[in-house]
Write a structure and sequence with these properties.
Layout (H helix, E strand, L loop, with lengths): L5 H6 L4 H42 L53 H9 L31 H10 L3 E5 L5 H12 L6 E5 L24 H11 L6 E4 L3 H11 L5 E4 L5 H13 L7 E4 L10 H12 L5 E3 L2 E4 L8
Parallel strand pairs: 1-2, 1-4, 2-3, 4-5
Antiparallel strand pairs: 5-7, 6-7
Helix pairs in contact: 4-5, 7-8, 8-9
């Protein structure tokens, strides 16, 4: 028998079945390698599709007015129920929650003294008014307002016969003093009007009111307002809260100062109007109180006031009525079960 050495065996061609096994192993290796590449490509493609789908389905936000259209409502018609907001679901950025807790209501005949005690150390700000350095700079009467003599004032004062009126946004007191005159004509001599305003105007307002002087940065708006009130001999019927509307309304709520009639006519942009309406509604006496405001139908609105009014009414299931340039909201009267 012929024997073959190891070196000779290594030089011989492989047996047929050994050749096929070697070829199959090479094919399997190549398939595994290319299969891995294919799987990686499929994964990247799938991720790209998911990313594209997610970005295309996300809403795009814009600062333009068209990006946040108002939802029209039918005036004086019932609105759909508001969405329920659960406290557990509300985050710190929830702008629909105004959580200040109001104090126990102060009697109407104690409202004036409550404000004098807490703001003016118990004495009238008209005491020894005007000071000597300001008197020469004031006009005996300088009243300027917008929509301050509308029929809505007499309509609502006649209807509500308010003991306390709270006005949010006063400027020189045109509408406040008109309400004083209307109340007097209706025999409501004890009606108190609380005027909320920081009496700073707005940047550049003196371009239209050049006669208002400035002393050490003070534009003397509050002093001219006080002069107007004194000229009508209404210093016992009018008292002011000379602070920003947000801080003043929070304090009136905490002190328990509520109004039978609340007028909102301060900032005209959406955010200012939205904040003022919500805070003012908390200090509206119920049942029987009415809240209303200006610039619902004026060029000064630019959609801010109307948007705020509509949103507030929709979320609180209220109805909006219109009286001239003013919006009016009457809270529902509770029904006895």
């Amino acid at each position: 028998m012929m024997t073959t050495t190891r070196s000779e065996a290594s030089s011989l061609p492989p047996a047929p079945h050994h050749h096929h096994l070697h070829r199959n192993r090479l094919v399997a290796v190549k398939f595994t390698r290319y299969g891995g590449y294919l799987i990686i490509l499929v994964c990247f493609y799938s991720l790209g599709r998911l990313s594209s789908s997610s970005s295309s389905s996300s809403p795009s936000y814009s600062s333009s007015r068209e990006a946040a259209p108002t939802t029209p409502i039918s005036l004086a018609e019932p609105l759909p129920p508001p969405p329920r907001i659960h406290r557990a679901e509300a985050g710190d950025d929830d702008h629909n929650l105004f959580l200040t807790r109001c104090g126990s209501p102060v009697a109407s005949n104690h409202v004036r003294q409550t404000i004098l005690d807490r703001v003016f150390n118990g004495s009238s700000p008209w005491q020894d008014f005007p000071p000597a350095h300001v008197a020469p700079l004031l006009r005996p009467r300088r009243i300027r307002g917008w929509g301050s003599n509308g029929a809505v004032f007499e309509n609502l004062i006649r209807e509500v016969r308010p003991r306390v009126i709270i006005e949010v946004g006063t400027f020189l007191g045109a509408s406040a003093l008109h309400m004083v005159s209307v109340a007097r004509n209706l025999g409501l001599r004890d009606t108190q009007i609380v005027c909320v305003d920081d009496f700073r105007g707005w940047p550049g307002f003196q371009e239209k009111f050049k006669e208002l002087k400035m002393v050490n940065g003070d534009v003397l708006l509050m002093q001219q307002f006080m002069q107007n009130v004194a000229g009508l001999k209404a210093t016992e019927q009018v008292v002011m809260m000379p602070f920003s509307t947000s801080s003043a309304l929070v304090k009136l709520c905490e002190w328990g100062v509520f109004g039978d009639l609340v007028e909102v006519d301060a900032g005209h942009d959406f955010h200012a109007a939205w904040s003022d309406i919500n805070a003012a509604y908390k200090i509206l006496k119920r049942p029987g109180g009415v809240i209303f405001g200006h610039d619902y139908f004026t060029s000064a609105d630019s959609g801010g006031v109307r948007r705020a009014v509509h949103l507030f009414a929709r979320l609180n299931h209220l109805r909006v009525e219109v009286d001239g340039q003013h919006w009016v909201i009457r809270p529902p009267t509770p029904t006895s079960s």
